[in-house]
Automatic annotation (TrEMBL):
<dbReference type="GO" id="GO:0000156">
    <property type="term" value="F:phosphorelay response regulator activity"/>
</dbReference>
<protein>
    <submittedName>
        <fullName>DNA-binding response regulator</fullName>
    </submittedName>
</protein>
<dbReference type="GO" id="GO:0005829">
    <property type="term" value="C:cytosol"/>
</dbReference>
<dbReference type="InterPro" id="IPR011006">
    <property type="entry name" value="CheY-like_superfamily"/>
</dbReference>
<feature type="modified residue" description="4-aspartylphosphate">
    <location>
        <position position="55"/>
    </location>
</feature>
<dbReference type="InterPro" id="IPR039420">
    <property type="entry name" value="WalR-like"/>
</dbReference>
<keyword id="KW-0597">Phosphoprotein</keyword>
<dbReference type="GO" id="GO:0006355">
    <property type="term" value="P:regulation of DNA-templated transcription"/>
</dbReference>
<dbReference type="InterPro" id="IPR001789">
    <property type="entry name" value="Sig_transdc_resp-reg_receiver"/>
</dbReference>
<dbReference type="GO" id="GO:0000976">
    <property type="term" value="F:transcription cis-regulatory region binding"/>
</dbReference>
<dbReference type="GO" id="GO:0032993">
    <property type="term" value="C:protein-DNA complex"/>
</dbReference>
<feature type="domain" description="HTH LytTR-type">
    <location>
        <begin position="145"/>
        <end position="249"/>
    </location>
</feature>
<dbReference type="Pfam" id="PF04397">
    <property type="entry name" value="LytTR"/>
</dbReference>
<dbReference type="InterPro" id="IPR007492">
    <property type="entry name" value="LytTR_DNA-bd_dom"/>
</dbReference>
<feature type="domain" description="Response regulatory">
    <location>
        <begin position="3"/>
        <end position="116"/>
    </location>
</feature>
<keyword id="KW-0238">DNA-binding</keyword>
<dbReference type="Pfam" id="PF00072">
    <property type="entry name" value="Response_reg"/>
</dbReference>
Length: 252
């Protein structure tokens, strides 16, 4: 049995989440409910829970402010939010778990299953990566993408990704240091995650590329983008116009 604390400033949402956890997550015991940043920090230090259900936006501050007060503790965290908060991108980059309200029962159970399967060290590393990514995104910097591998987490700066290649239900990352890293997520998930970062584009069904890692473009056979690792990636005819426009604008 794992102890948990719910941090949520809306009383009805707090009670609803409590009821859902009690009914559908028998491996979790909710030991306290909190509605403010200070109350949450006090209760977390008192109970030292293994898991936090943490609302991103509280009336008295943010869930991230609570985490920054817990340097000596490393609970697992499932974030909750009622809307597509700006921080969701940082959470996704960091491979942390979150739930959108109204909370879906199956998504709740899956999030609990995933966080309970990770080590305390992994939670600590993921939260550190999350805080770093929040700072980077707020200052228009370069966030780090967390890749969950079989026995470890790999933290990869976006600028170090040359290309991502589809491999069925898996994706292979080709990095500037020459390494190849395979992850058990399909390419569509990374396409959605990287949407809005103009340095990345899915130019073919099999590839997402880093536009800043292109060496040259070949015009033969419809067009290829030759990457910094000398691999030629075919440009889909449907993507060619957008590709050329992004290439023309990438240094503006």
């Amino acid at each position: 049995m794992q102890n948990a604390i719910i941090v949520e400033d809306e009383p009805r949402s707090r009670e609803l989440l409590y009821d859902l956890i009690k009914a559908h997550c028998p491996e979790i015991e909710v030991v306290a409910l909190a509605g403010t940043v200070q109350e949450a920090a006090t209760l977390i230090r008192q109970h030292k829970p293994q898991l936090l259900f943490l609302d991103i936006e509280l009336q008295t501050g943010t869930g991230f402010e609570i985490l920054q007060q817990l340097d000596d503790l490393s609970p697992a965290v499932i974030f909750t939010t009622a809307y597509d908060h700006y921080a969701i991108r940082a959470i996704k980059f960091s491979a942390a778990d979150y739930l959108l309200k109204p909370i879906d029962i199956d998504e709740l159970k899956e999030a609990v299953r995933k966080v309970l399967g990770r080590s305390a060290e992994s939670h600590q590393l993921m939260l550190a990566a999350l805080i770093q990514n929040l700072n980077e995104l707020q200052h228009r910097g370069q966030p780090t993408l967390t890749l969950s591998l079989a026995n470890e987490l790999e933290f990869v700066p976006l600028k170090d990704i040359i290309r991502i290649e589809a491999a069925g239900a898996y994706s292979t990352f080709y990095l500037t240091d020459g390494r190849h890293v395979m992850v058990s997520k399909n390419l569509k998930e990374y396409e959605l995650l990287l949407t809005g970062h103009h340095q990345f584009m899915r130019i073919h069904n099999s590839h997402i590329i880093n536009l800043n890692q292109i060496k040259r473009m070949l015009k033969t056979d419809g067009g290829y983008a030759v990457m910094s690792d000398d691999f030629p990636v075919m440009i889909s005819p449907k993507k060619k116009e957008t590709f050329i426009r992004l290439m023309n604008n990438r240094n503006l």
